[in-house]
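4.2 Preliminary Data

To establish feasibility before requesting continued support, the project team ran the inverse folding procedure on a target of 482 residues. The structure was first converted into the token representation described in Section 3, and no sequence information of any kind was made available to the design step. The complete token record follows.
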């Protein structure tokens, strides 16, 4: 009897200890998930949404049913513009918060912006947002956005007229009005509204990119410039739009505007090589070679190990016709580099190209054959040997290699152009014309290819076909302002 009592006491103590351990584990789990959640909230409030999402994810690894962490994951993704991921999180939260109207509105925005589940979007708007829109103004705007996104233009236009009669002025309405005009192909109207009401939200930024694309297609470059300027005034990441505006200035020959903007970009991004390259290209086009060389030498002094900058200096010498300096710089780089690295092969190819451009085909060929003996698939060396073969009159050798290069890189216009030269060398007119035509298809502004193509066209139909080709080229390049 005494032994039985001792056993019961022992088992009771074991059960008590186990209960205490389980309770302690539960408490530790609660502490850990709240620890990661609180870290996520601090990051979110400080604007570091990507890292915040990672911390909320850690909390969910501990407790996958942690609804607050799901919600804040969704909010982090939503703020970053990752609408598809945000939607997944918000839908989980909706199972617990069935009457949460702001959450329902967020879900509808995610559906519209992600555009990944059109059928589910239609069902959601029909069952949830349409009834809500009768009383909720924000839901009604979202319903309009849904109609536009689904290209239900009759229903959208009816709502827009009603809004305009009532003097609607909300940002969401104007964003939707821009999208509506884009769908209707009324690009100028869309741009005018965007210029008045743009704000740098993810939804607006995506819509403005659509405006930019359509203005380019319509060749409305004056309005396109205004759109770029408007975005640059407000966007946090200005560089892509500044770069786009620089491209417009280059195409339109507006050198003063180009230089002014490039100087602003150099000040804002002093270490950005892309920006410096843009400014150097401007200096070269303006025949300001000494300024460009000075900038590059200064950059080399700052970054003596930066091979890219040294390559840019060599290109500068070549463009300026200073071949002696180009040779010296290239040979200096080859002496400084180990022979078994990719950069050494690059500079070997550059030296061979320099010899080729100077008419020293024998020297170029020695270097290229050395490269190909070790690296048979090196694309630059293979292309240069083809150009050398054509100079030597060895068209058949060039044709085989060029066809292989084209099969590997079908959009490179230069390969097709030189294939045309090789066929022309053999008197194969039809094949040459076809190759020059392919070069033009890949690069409509390729003037040398166009000249060859016209020259090889039969006289009776060359004029009509040439007009078509020239029209294609002219429509791909904006008019240059005088």
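Position-by-position output of the design step:
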């Amino acid at each position: 009897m005494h032994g039985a009592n001792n056993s019961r006491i022992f088992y009771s103590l074991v059960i008590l200890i186990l209960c205490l351990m389980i309770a302690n584990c539960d408490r530790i789990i609660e502490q850990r998930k709240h620890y990661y959640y609180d870290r996520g909230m601090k990051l979110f409030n400080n604007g570091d949404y990507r890292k915040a999402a990672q911390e909320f994810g850690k909390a969910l690894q501990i407790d996958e049913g942690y609804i607050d962490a799901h919600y804040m994951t969704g909010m982090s993704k939503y703020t970053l513009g990752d609408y598809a991921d945000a939607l997944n999180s918000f839908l989980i939260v909706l199972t617990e918060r069935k009457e949460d109207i702001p959450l329902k509105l967020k879900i509808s925005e995610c559906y519209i912006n992600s555009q990944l589940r059109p059928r589910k979007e239609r069902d959601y708007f029909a069952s949830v947002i349409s009834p809500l829109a009768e009383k909720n103004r924000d839901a009604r705007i979202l319903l309009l956005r849904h109609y536009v996104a689904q290209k239900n233009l009759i229903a959208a236009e009816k709502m827009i007229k009603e809004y305009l009669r009532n003097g609607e002025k909300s940002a969401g309405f104007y964003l939707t009005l821009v999208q509506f005009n884009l769908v209707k192909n009324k690009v100028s109207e869309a741009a005018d509204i965007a210029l008045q009401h743009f704000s740098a939200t993810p939804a607006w930024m995506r819509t403005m990119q659509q405006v930019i694309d359509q203005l380019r297609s319509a060749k409305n470059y004056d309005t396109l410039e205004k759109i770029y300027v408007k975005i640059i005034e407000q966007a946090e990441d200005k560089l892509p739009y500044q770069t786009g505006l620089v491209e417009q200035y280059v195409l339109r020959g507006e050198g003063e505007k180009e230089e002014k903007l490039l100087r602003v970009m150099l000040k804002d991004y002093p270490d950005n090589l892309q920006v410096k390259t843009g400014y150097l290209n401007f200096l070269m086009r303006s025949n300001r070679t000494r300024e460009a060389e000075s900038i590059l030498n200064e950059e080399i002094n700052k970054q003596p190990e930066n091979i890219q900058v040294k390559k840019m200096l060599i290109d500068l010498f070549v463009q300026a016709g200073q071949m002696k300096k180009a040779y010296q710089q290239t040979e200096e780089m080859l002496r400084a580099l180990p022979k078994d690295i990719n950069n050494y092969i690059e500079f070997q190819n550059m030296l061979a190209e320099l010899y080729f451009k100077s008419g020293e085909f024998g020297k170029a060929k020695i270097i290229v054959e050395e490269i190909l003996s070790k690296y048979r698939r090196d694309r630059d060396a293979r292309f240069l040997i083809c150009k050398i073969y054509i100079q030597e009159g060895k068209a058949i050798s060039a044709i085989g290699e060029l066809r292989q290069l084209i099969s590997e890189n079908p959009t490179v216009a230069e390969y097709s152009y030189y294939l045309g030269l090789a066929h022309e060398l053999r008197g194969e007119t039809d094949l040459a014309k076809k190759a020059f035509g392919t070069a033009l298809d890949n690069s409509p502004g390729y003037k040398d290819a166009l000249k060859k193509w016209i020259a090889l066209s039969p006289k009776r139909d060359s004029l009509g076909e040439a007009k078509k080709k020239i029209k294609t080229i002219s429509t791909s390049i904006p008019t240059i302002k005088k």
